Structures are given as C-alpha cells and as structure tokens.
Amino acid sequence: MRMREKLGTSSRLKAAKGSHPLAKCLLKSPSPRVPRYRAVLLDRDGVINGLVYHQEAGVIDSPFTEAQFRLLPQVPQAIRLLNKLGLRVAVVSNQPGIAKGQLKPEILKSFDKALLAQVQAAGGHIDRIFYCLHHPDAIVPSLRRRCQCRKPRTGLLRRAAKELNVRLSECYMVGDGIPDLLAGVRAGCRTVFVRKWKCEICQLKEAAHVRPALLAKDLWEASRLIRKEILQAGRPQRRGLSGR
After folding, report:
1. Average pLDDT value over all residues in the chain
2. What whole-number distance in Å separates Cα of residue 176 and Cα of residue 221?
3. pLDDT tens digit string along 84-131?
4. Which pLDDT score is estimated for 8?
C-alpha cells in the first residue's frame, strides 16, 4: 500500500505526525534548494576582447590603442543570451594600463564605448563596468598602491555585487586568468574558466587547490553552459533562448 493511501488526506497526515514512523519525514523533508543565479561577472581581456602582442615590449597584454581593441567572435551574442536568461552582466577587470603609462584615460573610455555599442547593436546590454586601475609598480603616483580591488583580491567583485544588488554566491565569475579564478572562488562565485591561456598559466601551482566549476573555449560556449545549468536547475525558460 502506498504511503498516501495508508496515511490518508492532508488533515490526517497532520494528525498522524509522530504516530507513523515515516510521517515526520514525509511532512518535513524539504525539497533540495536550487541556487538561483542572478548575475554574471566578466573579465575583459581574453574573454570579451582579444589580447595583443606588443612587439616592442615582447609581451602579450591588453590593447593600448583603439585600433587594437577588437571583440572576440560571438561576444555580443553571448551577452545577449545572458540577458535573455534574466541575468545581470557586469565587467570586472584589472586595467593598470593608465597606471603604467601605457594608455590615456580617454582611450580606456573609447574601449568601453565601442564595447557597449557593439553589444547594443546585437540586442544585448552590459549593466556595469568596474575596473581596478591600480598597480603596485605604477608610474602614476595616485595609482601606485596594493589595493583590495585588484584581482585575485575580491574588492572589485564585492563592489560589483553591491551595485548590482546581488549576493556573490548568486554570481558566475567568467575569466581566462588565474587571478580571475582565485578571486571568484574566494568571493564564493561559481567560476567559469575560459581556456585562452595568458602568461599567468605559469602560476598554476599557486592555484593547485582551486578548480573552476565550468570550462569553456570562449564566452559564447560559457554562456551556453550557464544557460544549460540554469534551465536544468528548474528556472522557467524564457522565450528566445536560442541565443541567435
């Protein structure tokens, strides 16, 4: 005989509480709590735009000129997909170029303008952009400091969560560097590692105990993995989730 047939209606279930050995379990066992993710925090260089080889310095780094700033394939479409999932999207990025004298503030602003325009043209939007402009070896005195916002510290992520009005445990952190991964794990985010390795890969031993929740080849794949997780977790599916 099935449990409900044996115990009867809901009123009889309440009355039976404590008298039947399984009644207490039946009445009080909560369904598993499914995390509700509300935001995605994105690193910029290597996730949103391409890295640049600077021949004169012999390094791979952020773009320093407007001509060098190029979005990676399907980035606007990926951000639009995240928007359609009901997720807030913010950029959280270390950008010490001004501190190092590599670019001027107006160039950084031109990067933001180009990014926002291309995402908007694809039907998406970015809610906020947060940068850490500091560096411990900056040539600009006002930006020379060991701050709490430079990843792998969590200050920039905490600021983003506060301004987006979400908890860090409700955020995905998407990055392509070890500092992104460490900051996300330390902040309690669900981490997504985009496999476009920077020179920080040599620092992997510093994060040997840290592993991302998800691995993706680019932001488009990351957005689809996030969509899959959210839909599998039982959130109502919205219209237009094909991402195209």
Report:
1. 83
2. 13
3. 999 999 999 999 999 999 999 999 999 999 999 999 999 999 999 999
4. 43
Q: How many domains does the chain have?
A: 2
Query: How many other CB atoms sit within 10 Å of the CB of residue 125?
Result: 14
Model confidence at 57: pLDDT above 80: no
Task: Please state whether the predicted TM-score (pTM) of the whole model is above 0.85.
Answer: no
The reply to whether 137 and 186 lie within a common domain is yes
Query: Is 176 a catalytic site residue?
Result: no
- Look up residue 217 and give its DSSP letter: S
> 7: domain range?
1-30
| Catalytic status, residue 137 | no
Q: Are 23 and 13 in contact (CB under 8 A)?
A: yes
**CA 87 to each of CA 122, 136, 175, 186, 190: distance values in angstroms, whole numbers, following the listed order:** 17, 34, 17, 21, 14
From 43, 176, 180, 218, the catalytic residue: 43
71 within domain boundaries: yes
- Do 89 and 16 lie in one domain? The reply is no
Q: Are 5 and 86 within one domain?
A: no
Residue 166: predicted pLDDT: 97
- For residues 139-166, one letter each, b for 16 or more C-beta atoms within 10 angstroms of the residue's C-beta and e for the rest, the string is eeeebeeeeebbbbbbbbbbbbbeebeb
The whole-number pLDDT of residue 71 equals 98
> Is residue 126 domain-shared with residue 191, that is, in the same domain?
yes
Among residues 45, 61, 180, 218, which one is catalytic? 45
